[in-house]
Amino acid sequence: MLIAGDIGGTKTLLSCYQKDDLRTSLYKKRYPCKGFGSLEEIIKVFIEEFNIDPTISKACFALAGPIKNGHCTITNLPWEMEEPSIQSEFGFQKVKFINDFEAVGYGIQVLNDDEFITLNKGEETKEGTIAVLGAGTGLGEAYMNFSQEQNRYIVYPTEGGHSSFSPHNELEIHFLQYLMTKEEHVSFEGILAGKGLVKMYSFLKESGRFTESEKINEEMKTNDSAAVISQYGLNNEDKLCEEALDLFASIYGVESSNLALKFFALGGVYLAGGISPKIKEKLLDGTFMKSFLHKGKFRDFLTKIPVKIVMNEESGLIGATYIASKL
Q: Distance from CA of residue 267 to its chain's centroid?
């Protein structure tokens, strides 16, 4: 039996599988991280709820944070954990920690074609390097190199999402200046994840470029602000929300092409994470690709790189299950 987990800054998704069927879970449940003091607390609830025998199970947990020697501190949570202590506490046969975007990289290798949406067809190079990134609570980034020996891609996680934001037009320069008055370090993660969209909305409003609707102001007092902005922006019901979403898609395109160039990603760029599928209409309207290709003399090079949205939001869990099966 295999147990897999995808642990982010806001939610933990746990699932249990038979080893011969990695796509069909026996039990699966999503838990909010808020209210739990550790991953161990959530695992305990999951095991008790579904009456799972951990002593016959191998487990892999995809964690949103850097992992070193089996130890991890979640970047956006005050949780610290170690492989040996979890194995000992629950009696698992084996336990493995992997970075959440390392898991995504393994997960997308087993997804079906209909679980992707193409933004740029390009000219895919067989066995070429692949770049993976995705906005959610954080901004995950990884790259994948093909191993002839293992006949599959090996995934290498990075913390590239924390690199400094680099504006590429006058509006983004003003946005950076705005954020520098409020934050010690302006990173791509701080803009493309979490409350990034809300920061863009506030910047456009406070700069006097657009006027806020009283209706939207009231809705954001009782609902998730980013969700409200996305809803009205995607439906073209509010100019300020539309422009905030345009700015988000544009900066997402900038960082995606940065990654494509740094890793020479002739195998493609894959947009994963929880946000991309939710705003797929905006990513498809040309705003993203316009910025993606805005790299001067390397524009033609970038036109040849396939760009796809990963529509299956559980690709990280699938990747963790795959690694668990190899333990």
A: 19
